[in-house]
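Recall from the previous lesson that a structure prediction takes nothing but the amino acid sequence as input. Here we apply that procedure to Peptidase S1 domain-containing protein from Hansschlegelia plantiphila. The sequence below is the only information supplied.
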Amino acid sequence: MRSTVWRLSLAVCLSVILASPSVALSGGSPARASDRLARATVFITSLTPSGRNRAQVGNCTGVLIDRDLVLTAGHCLSDLGGPSLVVAQFFDRSNRVVGAVQVAAGALHPDYAGRASADDPKPELLGADLAILKLAQPAPADRQPIAIATRPMEAAKARSVLMGAGLHIPADDNSAGELRVARVNAEVVTGGPTAVALGVAGGAICRGDSGGPVVSSGGLWGVVIAIVRKKSLCNSTVFMAVLDPTSRGFRTMVARARRG
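The prediction returns the following tokens.
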């Protein structure tokens, strides 16, 4: 791996948004193993040394957009390179994680700002909270990538679902790693190549679901990046980055990940 440091942060410091290394779906329904999106969704686990004989473990969700490329949220990983280990796991017919493919390299969206200043959050760039992971080997043959919507803004207006593999029982760390799906009603609230949509999901978003794919009949149009925080760490109101695969930033991110 290259010694590329990814700071654990989210380009959102507004008081209503939870900046977390991972956000997850509590509620919803178990995903169907035969579902195409389920076969493309992965569980991302990172191990980063944080001191003597200690390490930080993080989990997120991601989605295959090519045989060896996984799209996720940019804030998910604190470090890629050096002694850190990042792996992508797939799901069996019971929607439990099985097997692992090591991540060889990754790239952040070039407009991702990391931990933004509270005085200058740059809302027009919040949708740049994206990253591409390059797998050390192609995904198993029974896993099929999902195509990104050619008209993502229009796709976001249609009835959508999101998938995630984080905690499905709040505060129970042993409940992560089961793939679940929930409906989400979304509305695009900012424009441009790094647009953001705000939606309400049919389940609470908690810990482990950042990077989860959002799809409609128009295709894969978004990625979970943050939740609206009220009294608890879980909520059904969620922010999603709207994908623009034709933009300079997105194409640069993919090219950098491919180069490793």
